[in-house]
Amino acid sequence: MTTEAPSKPRDFIREIVEADLAAGRYQRVITRFPPEPNGYLHIGHAKSICLNFGIAGEFGGQCNLRFDDTNPTKEEVEFSESIKRDVAWLGFSWDDNLFHASDYFDQLYAWGEELILKGKAYVDSSSADEMRAMRGTLIEAGQESAYRTRSVDENLDLFRRMKAGEFPDGAHVLRAKIDMASPNINMRDPVLYRIRHERHDRTGDAWCIYPLYDYAHPLSDAIEHITHSLCTLEFEDHRPLYDWLIESVSVPSRPRQYEFARLNLNYTVMSKRKLLRLVEEKHVNGWDDPRMPTIAGLRRRGYTPASIRNFCERVGVAKRENVIDAGLVEFCVREDLNTTAPRVMGVLDPLRVVIDNYPEGETEWFDTGTRKVPFARTLLIEREDFMEEPPNKFFRLAPGREVRLRSAYFITCTGVVKDDAGNIVELHATYDPATRGGDSPDGRKPKATLHWVSADHAVDCEVRLYDRLFRSENPEESGNFLDDLNPNSLQVVPRAKLEPSVRGAAPFTRYQFERLGYFCVDPDSSGEAIVFNRTVTLKDTWAKVK
Length: 546
Known about the structure:
about 550 residues, CATH 2.40.240.10, alpha/beta, single chain
């Protein structure tokens, strides 16, 4: 895994933009980020956001946020609002350049009529199954529809009646008249408009026919005078249709489409359809579940905008598909939080330690340099930091052994208390007053330093330990990605104990719990009931051992 950050973004798309500006093809760069409002954005979209807004910013241009809202059966206002929230959270601004494909419905329809008048489009009354059967295969040409020879007047009349709402869904479609024998299936008379008697969030009941993405996308680019239309590689075979449409109608500008490799992560699924299934079938707790690769999920888990932008920069922009190790994004998160997240101490599985020679009722406050922590007679340490019969190379607390408490004192275990079942419920210890602050005047250096909290001052918190949602690098390898769900992707610690400095922490406040990892306050928190999500461990626990 490569972790060295590039000094400055440099890739083939930026080289194209530089060359276009140098040649005077454009006076100003205009890009766009065109999401469909039919789901939440994921980290793959973050790469496209960073690229489109980044290039516009680097070259003094403009990036539009344009919603491709052409399918009212799947779109929701919730999704549109989440997209705006995610783009802004990543640190980008569209200023006044927020647009919708629905803004252009009148013009798109007019261009549909123009195609008909030029003999480049026709109304097809075949059923969906008939059109599918006539489409052909990769090695066989398609068959022309019986309706392909309709006259211009008949096509125009039918298209206008489609718009007027005279026909039911599926009765007719408008198709481009290109070439049913084309080796590129996308050029075999693609559908441009279909009938959908569905209310649109923005246009209401004004329309009952809606353009398809492959039609609306290039023409919307032309309306907005987009100079560089940046798409992922799956749209490479759609580029001939993009260019055909730009050449076939009287557009105000002539944008160019360029393709780059999409972001693929291991241990992850990136299909919006599969993510929707995870949500709808309740395998996760919504689109913003911290196990999801959605930007909302990453934000809730505690990822920072800077870490995601840094990750996208490290991944870079390539022409060939590849799979990125999920450990790289986790590295970027650790790298950022290591410099920004304040340190605190917390105990997830507490074990009581009574310091027998420490005065009862007394409290000291130790200054760690960033905050003060209380020390008293009864402390809590991690249960796994004690073993009654320690093996070799276990250097933490054991009977008769001395350890350092972070920023406090050296203590030595003097006794073990068990319940009737033989479970350890409490330890007894003594402290050395001369080691205040964690140093010994005689040079003693215990081999272990433990984190701890004062039992009387500790804040009760729920801690959610999130891990990767899937067990395998390629969750879809078995044929059903749901079979690869990690049953241990969420473990809840109902009553963890944290130092009092976290009391009242606002949602999305991030901390490093010393020795445990990075954690973020969940928005489920309210008042004294604080919920923490584990953002990432202190090291990559999934790393391959070689």
